[in-house]
Design brief:
The chain has strands at residues 11-19, 29-32, 35-36, 39-46, 50-59, 66-69, 73-77, 84-90, 99-107, 110-121. The protein has 128 residues and is mainly β. It is elongated.
Amino acid sequence: MQADVNGLQRKILTAGVRPLKAVDGSDGISVRDGYTLPFVVTREWSAPAGYYTEQWFLVKPDTGEVFVEGVPQEALIWGLQSRTELRDEVTEPLPVPPGTYQLVFALNRLKGGELEVEVAEAPAEEAA
């Protein structure tokens, strides 16, 4: 995925989201009983070198409602010629209904890219 950002040299080169445990699925965000299971958000930034406040948002595209805000963090971006990889593990269950969302990425509150994400019921748990 490549962001289409004109004028600003801050963009996401690649991004992904997947359940933390493989048993819960291979991509997207899995939910059970209306709450997210632990998941991982990865992304690679290209931007001028420096420190930025980096954050991601899970947004319902048809309404613009933000369902989840990633924790803002200070990130050192290595520069335009280098990829800076960031990874977050979200382990707290969050109330998110199944559906199609946009995962929006920002540096200093300026959008650098987005990724379409499916939130779906997790596969059934196997009996022990």
